[in-house]
Amino acid sequence: MDVRIGIQNSPRELSFETSQSAADVEQAVAAALAGQSTLLKLSDDKGTVYVVPAAALAYVEIGSEESRRVGFVA
């Protein structure tokens, strides 16, 4: 699933693919925004861990869990 994170006062966004479910990512974002955690920690498929301060989050876009199809679809 694709995840894109916008950070305040930064012209670039974090974009990566993760094997975490959409519900897990949404729960981590909600906990960070509710003040239960001061950091948002997510990891990608390659094992890289992304840590973003909750106060700096501008937006989080969670993609669908469907796998992409390659080729022509009938």
TrEMBL record:
A Pfam family annotated for this UniProt entry: DUF3107
Name of the protein: DUF3107 domain-containing protein
Organism: Agromyces neolithicus
Organism lineage string: Bacteria, Bacillati, Actinomycetota, Actinomycetes, Micrococcales
